[in-house]
Amino acid sequence: MTAIAYRWNRTDAATAYDAAAPHIHPHYHVVQAAVLSALPRTVREVVDLGGGSGRLAEQILEEFPAARVTIVDPSEPFLALAEERLERFAGRFQTVPQSAQGEWRSDTPTPDAIVSTSALHHLDSSEKNAVFAACRAALEPGGVFINGDEYRPPSDAAYRADLEAWGAHMNAALALGAIPPSFGATIKSWHERNLEDFGGPRTSGDDCHETIEEQIARLYGAGFHSAEAIWKESLWGVVMAQR
Protein backbone atom coordinates (compact mmCIF):
# COMPACT_ATOMS: atom_id res chain seq x y z
CA MET A 1 0.00 0.00 0.00
CA THR A 2 1.20 3.51 -0.76
CA ALA A 3 1.78 5.66 2.32
CA ILE A 4 -0.62 8.55 2.85
CA ALA A 5 0.62 11.77 4.45
CA TYR A 6 -1.01 11.78 7.86
CA ARG A 7 0.17 12.57 11.38
CA TRP A 8 -0.64 9.04 12.62
CA ASN A 9 1.40 7.41 9.84
CA ARG A 10 4.12 6.46 12.34
CA THR A 11 4.02 3.06 13.99
CA ASP A 12 5.14 4.39 17.39
CA ALA A 13 2.43 7.08 17.41
CA ALA A 14 -0.30 4.65 16.35
CA THR A 15 0.75 2.06 18.92
CA ALA A 16 0.86 4.65 21.71
CA TYR A 17 -2.58 5.99 20.82
CA ASP A 18 -4.06 2.49 20.63
CA ALA A 19 -2.81 1.81 24.16
CA ALA A 20 -3.83 5.22 25.50
CA ALA A 21 -7.21 5.83 23.86
CA PRO A 22 -9.45 4.34 26.60
CA HIS A 23 -7.63 6.55 29.15
CA ILE A 24 -7.44 9.69 27.01
CA HIS A 25 -11.20 9.90 26.49
CA PRO A 26 -13.19 9.94 29.76
CA HIS A 27 -16.26 8.40 28.08
CA TYR A 28 -14.47 6.15 25.60
CA HIS A 29 -16.30 2.92 26.47
CA VAL A 30 -19.66 4.62 26.96
CA VAL A 31 -19.51 6.22 23.51
CA GLN A 32 -18.65 2.93 21.83
CA ALA A 33 -21.40 1.14 23.76
CA ALA A 34 -23.93 3.77 22.61
CA VAL A 35 -22.87 3.31 18.99
CA LEU A 36 -23.21 -0.48 19.31
CA SER A 37 -26.63 -0.20 20.95
CA ALA A 38 -27.88 2.02 18.13
CA LEU A 39 -26.93 -0.42 15.37
CA PRO A 40 -29.92 -2.36 13.98
CA ARG A 41 -29.81 -6.02 14.97
CA THR A 42 -30.15 -6.95 11.28
CA VAL A 43 -27.00 -5.08 10.22
CA ARG A 44 -24.87 -6.90 7.66
CA GLU A 45 -22.39 -4.47 6.08
CA VAL A 46 -20.76 -1.80 8.27
CA VAL A 47 -18.26 0.87 7.25
CA ASP A 48 -16.20 2.33 10.10
CA LEU A 49 -14.86 5.74 9.02
CA GLY A 50 -11.62 6.62 10.78
CA GLY A 51 -11.75 3.17 12.38
CA GLY A 52 -8.08 3.26 13.33
CA SER A 53 -6.80 0.21 15.18
CA GLY A 54 -10.12 -1.64 15.03
CA ARG A 55 -11.34 -1.36 18.60
CA LEU A 56 -14.93 -0.54 17.60
CA ALA A 57 -14.85 -2.98 14.68
CA GLU A 58 -13.85 -5.76 17.08
CA GLN A 59 -16.91 -5.13 19.21
CA ILE A 60 -19.20 -5.03 16.17
CA LEU A 61 -17.85 -8.32 14.87
CA GLU A 62 -18.28 -9.93 18.28
CA GLU A 63 -21.81 -8.65 18.86
CA PHE A 64 -23.11 -9.11 15.31
CA PRO A 65 -21.86 -12.52 14.08
CA ALA A 66 -23.51 -12.10 10.66
CA ALA A 67 -21.94 -8.68 10.02
CA ARG A 68 -18.90 -7.66 7.99
CA VAL A 69 -16.91 -4.50 8.72
CA THR A 70 -14.81 -2.31 6.44
CA ILE A 71 -12.37 -0.08 8.31
CA VAL A 72 -11.52 3.12 6.45
CA ASP A 73 -8.50 5.00 7.80
CA PRO A 74 -5.59 6.92 6.24
CA SER A 75 -3.02 5.55 8.72
CA GLU A 76 -1.34 2.34 7.57
CA PRO A 77 0.14 1.72 11.05
CA PHE A 78 -3.37 1.92 12.53
CA LEU A 79 -4.67 -0.49 9.89
CA ALA A 80 -1.81 -2.90 10.61
CA LEU A 81 -2.87 -2.90 14.27
CA ALA A 82 -6.48 -3.48 13.21
CA GLU A 83 -5.54 -6.44 11.02
CA GLU A 84 -3.65 -7.99 13.93
CA ARG A 85 -6.49 -7.31 16.38
CA LEU A 86 -9.13 -8.76 14.05
CA GLU A 87 -7.18 -11.75 12.76
CA ARG A 88 -9.65 -14.19 14.31
CA PHE A 89 -12.43 -12.64 12.19
CA ALA A 90 -10.68 -13.40 8.89
CA GLY A 91 -13.12 -13.15 5.99
CA ARG A 92 -15.44 -10.78 7.87
CA PHE A 93 -13.45 -7.56 7.66
CA GLN A 94 -11.30 -5.54 5.32
CA THR A 95 -9.21 -2.40 5.66
CA VAL A 96 -9.16 0.50 3.20
CA PRO A 97 -6.28 3.03 3.42
CA GLN A 98 -8.30 6.16 2.74
CA SER A 99 -9.41 9.24 4.63
CA ALA A 100 -13.08 9.80 5.39
CA GLN A 101 -13.07 12.56 2.77
CA GLY A 102 -11.31 10.33 0.23
CA GLU A 103 -12.56 7.91 -2.41
CA TRP A 104 -13.44 5.06 -0.06
CA ARG A 105 -16.84 4.30 -1.56
CA SER A 106 -15.43 2.50 -4.58
CA ASP A 107 -13.55 0.09 -2.28
CA THR A 108 -16.41 -0.83 0.04
CA PRO A 109 -19.56 -2.95 -0.28
CA THR A 110 -22.84 -1.05 -0.05
CA PRO A 111 -23.31 -0.60 3.72
CA ASP A 112 -26.51 -0.66 5.72
CA ALA A 113 -24.64 1.16 8.52
CA ILE A 114 -21.77 3.65 8.66
CA VAL A 115 -20.19 4.36 12.03
CA SER A 116 -17.42 6.62 13.27
CA THR A 117 -15.89 7.48 16.64
CA SER A 118 -13.53 10.31 17.60
CA ALA A 119 -12.58 11.07 14.01
CA LEU A 120 -14.85 13.40 12.04
CA HIS A 121 -14.36 16.42 14.34
CA HIS A 122 -10.99 16.80 12.61
CA LEU A 123 -12.75 17.77 9.36
CA ASP A 124 -13.44 21.39 8.47
CA SER A 125 -16.96 22.55 7.59
CA SER A 126 -16.77 21.84 3.86
CA GLU A 127 -15.24 18.40 4.48
CA LYS A 128 -17.96 17.49 6.97
CA ASN A 129 -20.62 18.45 4.45
CA ALA A 130 -18.96 16.37 1.73
CA VAL A 131 -18.46 13.34 3.97
CA PHE A 132 -22.04 13.40 5.23
CA ALA A 133 -23.31 13.62 1.64
CA ALA A 134 -21.06 10.71 0.66
CA CYS A 135 -22.35 8.65 3.60
CA ARG A 136 -25.95 9.35 2.67
CA ALA A 137 -25.28 8.36 -0.95
CA ALA A 138 -23.39 5.19 0.04
CA LEU A 139 -25.99 3.79 2.43
CA GLU A 140 -28.73 1.34 1.56
CA PRO A 141 -32.22 2.91 1.76
CA GLY A 142 -33.13 2.97 5.45
CA GLY A 143 -29.48 2.63 6.43
CA VAL A 144 -28.04 4.46 9.43
CA PHE A 145 -25.08 6.73 10.09
CA ILE A 146 -23.90 6.85 13.72
CA ASN A 147 -21.20 9.28 14.84
CA GLY A 148 -19.73 9.12 18.35
CA ASP A 149 -17.56 12.19 18.51
CA GLU A 150 -16.51 15.41 20.24
CA TYR A 151 -19.01 18.31 20.25
CA ARG A 152 -18.61 21.74 21.80
CA PRO A 153 -21.33 23.49 23.84
CA PRO A 154 -22.70 26.74 22.35
CA SER A 155 -21.12 28.91 25.08
CA ASP A 156 -17.42 29.75 24.73
CA ALA A 157 -17.07 29.80 28.51
CA ALA A 158 -18.58 26.33 28.87
CA TYR A 159 -16.50 25.07 25.94
CA ARG A 160 -13.24 26.29 27.50
CA ALA A 161 -14.20 24.83 30.88
CA ASP A 162 -14.85 21.44 29.25
CA LEU A 163 -11.52 21.58 27.41
CA GLU A 164 -9.68 22.49 30.62
CA ALA A 165 -11.32 19.58 32.45
CA TRP A 166 -10.32 17.21 29.68
CA GLY A 167 -6.77 18.54 29.67
CA ALA A 168 -6.51 17.97 33.43
CA HIS A 169 -7.88 14.44 32.98
CA MET A 170 -5.20 13.61 30.38
CA ASN A 171 -2.41 15.10 32.49
CA ALA A 172 -3.52 13.06 35.51
CA ALA A 173 -3.70 9.83 33.48
CA LEU A 174 -0.24 10.54 32.07
CA ALA A 175 1.19 11.16 35.56
CA LEU A 176 -0.35 7.90 36.83
CA GLY A 177 1.11 5.90 33.93
CA ALA A 178 -2.26 5.00 32.40
CA ILE A 179 -1.17 6.86 29.26
CA PRO A 180 2.26 5.85 27.88
CA PRO A 181 5.00 8.48 28.43
CA SER A 182 5.62 8.49 24.67
CA PHE A 183 2.20 10.13 24.25
CA GLY A 184 3.15 13.09 26.44
CA ALA A 185 4.31 15.24 23.50
CA THR A 186 0.97 14.69 21.77
CA ILE A 187 -0.91 15.83 24.88
CA LYS A 188 1.33 18.90 25.14
CA SER A 189 0.55 19.73 21.50
CA TRP A 190 -3.18 19.30 22.23
CA HIS A 191 -2.91 21.84 25.08
CA GLU A 192 -1.12 24.31 22.84
CA ARG A 193 -3.71 24.05 20.07
CA ASN A 194 -6.86 23.92 22.13
CA LEU A 195 -6.14 25.95 25.27
CA GLU A 196 -3.19 28.26 24.61
CA ASP A 197 -4.67 29.07 21.19
CA PHE A 198 -8.30 28.90 22.34
CA GLY A 199 -10.53 30.67 19.83
CA GLY A 200 -7.81 30.71 17.17
CA PRO A 201 -8.37 29.67 13.56
CA ARG A 202 -8.87 25.97 12.86
CA THR A 203 -8.11 24.06 9.68
CA SER A 204 -8.58 20.48 8.54
CA GLY A 205 -6.76 18.13 10.92
CA ASP A 206 -7.28 20.38 13.95
CA ASP A 207 -10.06 19.87 16.49
CA CYS A 208 -12.79 21.56 14.42
CA HIS A 209 -15.46 21.19 17.08
CA GLU A 210 -19.06 22.19 16.45
CA THR A 211 -22.28 21.81 18.42
CA ILE A 212 -24.51 18.78 18.07
CA GLU A 213 -27.19 21.08 16.66
CA GLU A 214 -24.82 22.23 13.92
CA GLN A 215 -23.98 18.66 13.00
CA ILE A 216 -27.63 17.62 12.90
CA ALA A 217 -28.33 20.54 10.56
CA ARG A 218 -25.47 19.36 8.30
CA LEU A 219 -26.91 15.84 8.21
CA TYR A 220 -30.33 17.12 7.17
CA GLY A 221 -28.57 19.30 4.60
CA ALA A 222 -26.87 16.16 3.24
CA GLY A 223 -30.29 14.60 2.63
CA PHE A 224 -30.75 12.33 5.62
CA HIS A 225 -34.38 11.58 6.47
CA SER A 226 -33.87 12.01 10.23
CA ALA A 227 -31.08 12.97 12.61
CA GLU A 228 -30.93 13.16 16.40
CA ALA A 229 -28.60 13.08 19.39
CA ILE A 230 -28.99 9.79 21.26
CA TRP A 231 -26.39 10.44 23.99
CA LYS A 232 -24.45 13.47 25.27
CA GLU A 233 -22.05 14.20 28.13
CA SER A 234 -19.63 17.12 28.32
CA LEU A 235 -17.62 17.23 25.05
CA TRP A 236 -18.82 13.85 23.84
CA GLY A 237 -21.98 12.77 22.12
CA VAL A 238 -23.50 10.26 19.73
CA VAL A 239 -25.57 11.41 16.76
CA MET A 240 -27.63 9.04 14.63
CA ALA A 241 -29.10 9.74 11.19
CA GLN A 242 -31.19 7.59 8.86
CA ARG A 243 -31.17 7.63 5.09
TrEMBL record:
GO biological process: methylation
Entries under InterPro entries matching the protein: Methyltransf_12 (IPR013217), SAM-dependent_MTases_sf (IPR029063)
Keywords (A to Z) from UniProt: Methyltransferase, S-adenosyl-L-methionine, Transferase
One Pfam family matching this protein: Methyltransf_12
Domain of life the protein comes from: Bacteria
GO molecular function: methyltransferase activity
Entries under SUPFAM superfamilies matching the protein: S-adenosyl-L-methionine-dependent methyltransferases
CDD domains: AdoMet_MTases
The Methyltransferase type domain, residue ranges: 47-145
Coiled coil: none
Protein name: Methyltransferase type 12 domain-containing protein
